[in-house]
Amino acid sequence: MPRFEKLTIFAPAKVNLCLAVKNRREDGFHDLESLFLALNFGDLLHFKPRDAVSDEISMGNCPVPMLDNIIYKAITLFREKTGFSQKFNVIVEKRVPIGGGLGGGSSNAAAALLALNKIWGIQGETLNHQLLLEMAAALGSDVPFFIHETPAAMVSGRGEIIEAVDMPPMFLVLVNPGFPSDTARAFRLLDEKRELGIIKEEFTHRTTGSCGLCGSWQNFVNDFMSIFPEEEQRIYNEIISALQSQGARYANLSGSGATCFGVFEEEEQARKAAEALRGKWDFVEYCTQNEFD
Ligand code: C5P
């Protein structure tokens, strides 16, 4: 096999500009309707060949445990499907907050599948897009979106139905309060509140083409916004208000938290907002949508 020295791949983060959660399905998952936007902010993954019996994944010079690591799961799945036996040293430049609702882990998994497919391609073999999507769906609900490498998409089903959409240029500010949010817990809280009748599904935006693709930010929702205990809710509301005070046209929670985002129409305004909010919260980042090559 021709040798490769190193492959570096960008794993973009995402925000859910809009996220509508439907009812719980028999398999325990929920059908979603969500407008995903890939960001030019994310992690970098470096793949180097490793002449050893096992892989090694490290972050900031420290090896990370492999067992529950989604990158390792992606590599293992790729090997099972292809028989590709090369072992890897994977160095992760992690910038996306973990448990942040920005798809960091999912994007890492998709990047690993795409990277291995490129490396395997040096031998002249590749998996087709459909197979990659199926593997992605097995790794996590948000992973297929990142296989598409599209700046924006309407995502539905469990996350496997993806329809690319055009979005105008947007300037975003991400704010993470410094604590993670567990996705499974958030879905559980949402189910509990719905069962108790405390919150209802908002049928209106689901019957009108969902997520406000008719063009108005007013239709955009995140169904997780009302399910958190008081203190978490207070913090999210505080961040969203701060983003709005800085001139954000729209601000909401991304995914099941804990990162909030504001959308600005002008780059300068977004950069100034990020500057003003830095210091108040652990993580503040200016970014725009990702343009894939
Ligand atoms: O697929 P993923 O690993 O991201 O899902 C984590 C958890 O979030 C699942 O175990 C499930 O409880 C919940 N989930 C869901 N419906 C989805 C996506 C995730 O209920 N569409």
Radius of gyration (Å): 19 Å
Major sheet, described briefly?
7 strands, mixed
Residue share in helices?
25-40%
Mean pLDDT: 92
Which topology of the largest domain does CATH recognise?
Ribosomal Protein S5, domain 2
- In terms of DSSP E residues, the strand content is 25-35%
Please trace the helix and strand order, writing H or E for each element. Answer: EEEEHEHHHEEEHHHEEHE
Ligand kinds = cytidine-5'-monophosphate
**Total count of helical runs of at least 4 residues:** 8
Corresponding CATH architecture of the largest domain:
2-Layer Sandwich
Q: Could you explain the architecture of this structure?
A:
With 293 residues, this protein is an alpha+beta fold. The protein has two domains: 158 residues, 2-Layer Sandwich (Ribosomal Protein S5, domain 2); 118 residues, GHMP kinase, C-terminal domain (Alpha-Beta Plaits, 2-Layer Sandwich). Helix content is 32%, strand content 28%. It contains eight helices and eleven strands. Strands 1, 2, 3, 4, 5, 6 and 7 form a seven-stranded mixed sheet that branches. It has a four-stranded antiparallel sheet with strand order 9-10-8-11, covered by helices on one side. It is globular, with a radius of gyration of 19 Å. About 2% of the residues have low confidence. The structure holds cytidine-5'-monophosphate. The site of cytidine-5'-monophosphate has 11 residues, from strand 2 and helix 5.
